[in-house]
Design goal:
The complex is a heterotrimer of chains A (460), B (454) and C (87).
Chain A (H helix, E strand, L loop, with lengths): L2 E10 L40 H13 L3 E2 L4 E2 L1 E5 L9 E5 L3 E6 L2 E10 L3 E3 L4 E3 L6 E7 L6 H17 L11 E9 L5 E6 L2 H20 L7 E6 L4 E4 L2 H4 L6 E2 L6 E2 L2 H10 L4 H12 L3 H7 L3 H11 L4 H19 L10 H12 L5 H13 L4 H8 L8 H12 L1 H8 L4 H13 L6 H18 L1
Parallel strand pairs in A: 12-13
Antiparallel strand pairs in A: 1-10, 1-11, 2-6, 3-16, 4-5, 4-15, 6-7, 7-10, 8-9, 11-12, 13-14
Chain B lengths: L2 H10 L4 H19 L2 E4 L3 H13 L10 E5 L26 H8 L3 E6 L33 H8 L5 E6 L5 H7 L2 E4 L19 E6 L2 H11 L28 E4 L1 H5 L3 H16 L3 E4 L8 H16 L12 H4 L2 H13 L6 H24 L2 E5 L14 H5 L6 H6 L2 E10 L2 E9 L4 H16 L1
Parallel strand pairs in B: 2-3, 2-4, 7-8, 7-9
Antiparallel strand pairs in B: 1-3, 4-6, 5-6, 5-10, 9-11, 10-11
Helix pairs in contact in B: 2-3, 7-16, 10-12, 10-13
Chain C lengths: L5 H19 L30 H14 L9 E2 L8
The chains are: A alpha+beta (460), B alpha/beta (454), C mainly alpha (87).
Amino acid sequence: MEVKIGFEVHLQLRTERKLYCDCPTNYAEVPPNTNVCPICTGMPGAKPMRPNRAAVEAAVEISLMLGCRVRTGEPLHILRKHYDYPDLPSGYQRTSVPLAVEGVLEGVRIREVHLEEDPGQYDPVSGTVDFNRSGIPLVEIVTEPDLRSPEEARRFLRLLTRVLEYTGRVRPEAGGAMRADVNVSLEGGGRVEVKNINSVKGAYRALKFELQRQAERLRRGQGVSRETRAYLESQMITVPMRAKELEEDYRYIPDPDLPPILLGEELVEEVRRRMVEPPHLRERRLVERYGIPLQAARVITSERELADLFERVAGEVDPLLAADWFRTKLKKVLNYLGLRAGEVGFSAGQLLSLLKMVESGRISREQGELVLRELVRRPEDPERILLRLGLSPLREGELEELVGRVLEENREAVQDYLGGRKEALNFLTGKVVGASGGRADPREVVRILRERLEGLRGRD
Amino acid sequence: MGTLEKLEALRGGELSPVDNLERILERVERLNERFNIFLQVNPRAREEAEEVERRMRRGEGGRLSGLAVAVKSNLNVRGLKATCASRTLEDYVSPYDAEVVARIRREGGVVVGMTNMDEFACGSSGESSAFGPTDNPSAPGYIPGGSSSGSAAAVAAGLCDLALGTDTGGSIRNPASHCGVAGLKPTYGLVPRHGLIDLGMSLDQVGPLAPDVQGLRLLLEVIAGENPGEGMMLDVKRVSYPGIEEGVRGMRVGVCPQFSSLTDPRINEVVERKVELLGELGARVEEVSIPHLEHALSAYYLIVSVEFFSATRRYDGRKYGKRIEEVCGEEVLRRIAIGSYISRREYRGKYYERALQLRALIRRELSSALERVEVLVGPTVPKLPHRLGEKLSPLEMYAYDYLTVPANLAGICAGVVKAGEVGGIPVGIQVQGPPLGEEKVLRVMRALEAEAWK
Amino acid sequence: MKARGEDWRREVERSAEEILQALSRSLEVLAVEKESYGPGEIHQPLREDGKPSPAEEREAFRERFLSLAPSKDEEGNLRVEAAGWAR
């Protein structure tokens, strides 16, 4: 049975001021009705200020991230959407017409992106209203009903929030910064809209419940009528909303207090120039450009700063080595210390230096990992860390010297190897490691010995 | 004493702001009950006058230097009640100053009090206030006009030096005409609206009323100019009109047959005499046409109803005041009903969008006319004010607005100054100019006024 | 004050309909025009984001805002009706 799922996702934008007034936006951190003024509380006579530029630019950036066409050069009106609810101080919500249309994210078409203001916070149980949140800028993203299962929907929402959080322009999903309305229909049934979803998990559960409910009804021949339902998180079910809410005619009019937004080409180009590469595209590019595995690229692009760091070093050292170290050792240390990549104190140069030491075999992997841990904790030149830890690396070229010396001193073993006796390699390796006082990395030694020995084979 | 003379007296020290205020308060005491002009007198007026005096001693008296200003009750004045003459907001004490009020205070104006008006500015007579009608001090027993009834009456009765009114469809000009005082509706977007309680957001403007044209000019220069951050304002920093005494020689003045054809002949006669006078003073009078003028009224009432419906959704009784539909008067309820109906999805195209198109047409016609001439002159209202208590149907009441709504629809400026009387009832002449054409409008008004005072 | 019963409301609504009919006759005179939402074309730059409004200003407003509220609680929330569907 064909399933059609689409979303209207609302996310709060990260700005210092609200969308239509200068009140601060840290609504969760202050007592009720503290970040308020006549405008965001709907006092008689209060007029909105012109829209916050950072919010508009963030919406444009998000639109570009999602591959949308931005509607430049047309007057984009801000509409009043009227309805009666305690959290709406003016009795209407200001919402723009679409600023951008026709995008796509991993195969799911984005119908439109627009800008609106958050209402206040209403607790329907206790009957209290706090307007701190009223007027915070929101971006609304509407998709076509291109998703086919709750799992697909969950994957998509996770990707969407990851992409948007990556820009740094939206508040993270946790803390109620994301709200979604989901619409879902089964073949043969009407389209049902489900509201009051505040998390990716909630969306998944709501969809599972709803699909089950609808399938059951269709099976029984009861039919599924077009309606609006509410998701109840505590019980993980959907319930019908009151009929009154369904017949809502929002009586949209362009807000006479606000001039239409006019997005110029220059503004869009400026945003495009400044914006970060979206993670899903960067991931792909890292794989192509550096030949690293997708899994590694995914981990590396999980944080923008981590990916930035990776690209600083991957040009100068074996990228596979770097990728492996980023995915396993570096990520491990960061997680252990609870640090984000953007918070590390060491420089790219220092990290590069360390990786080069490992690459050249001057230190063993195990030694490298110890140095890395120190590097994160107390950033310093890796050479000095080695000294401090009492691990002295081999000098540049020292390993080559030692290998040369051992080969010289153990001609018999060399002949044995060339004659086909593989154990001779182990013997020679042990000699080199011994000669280095245990500092050489056995794997590196083996590699170099093999190279040299094969080189000798040709000469005899 | 004219405004400028009084200002000089205040600045020169012959009159102190406190004395000025005291005299005014004395008159208020004597006359307010009879004419029902002020809904609230500012209990801190004396303190504010004293403060202005102190500032004047430091040389910081500002452009108003202690002049007493009456404020219409739909403007927020912190600490006073902006009731809009409605039970909905009868206990609403403003938590903030409207931008225009802040400017007046900064320039040394003293707020006398909050004036009576038609409820939520929905009226043209001054009779629909929830707190009783205002009487016309210049023609007692007759309506003072509306909706800035109290502000116009305050000027007429000498209960203030200057007054703030608001004009959405004629609400400054109509009472200015009936009360025989000067009033001006500025170009839309010239004066900040932050703090003005909405009737029709794309039509409302705050404007001055005064006993003379220099008073209009003074108050306008204080309140006009950009308010950074406020949307829908024109890109004008400050205004100044030094040239309004220059006379009208060489000015092209337009008269419009569509104005007079709608108007009582007795009013036309008074106005025509003034038009002739302009000709004698050197202006070139010519006829221009505004073919669809009479349809402007319909466009206006349809648009204002939709906007007013939207504006009133916030009066839900949860944050302040009461739920409007539960306590408002008949006209307010009627406009909400009309606005609610025609903004419905299925009717938008039929009414609202057509009205917007009609608006575009009127704007074009006025604009064309004002390309051929510099100002338009004509009557302000098509009929003489009726007696207080006389019952008019809503459409008969709306008919007062025929000649004033076009300026609001087009966003142009328009002023009114007394032109004469009919049977003792004041008749005002309306002068309309292009957007930001206040200087020309004031100049014509001043020329007429100067002749009348000779 | 007039009695505000249902009859009165219905009467007002009926008068509203009548007026609407009268007013809309004017709409028939028109050829189709482009709509005009406002009195003129006003385009403006956007408002810069930046330091929010000062706390003292908002504290003062908060006090007045709460004193206007028909009902509030100790934390400063507005008190309004509870919702039906959220049992």
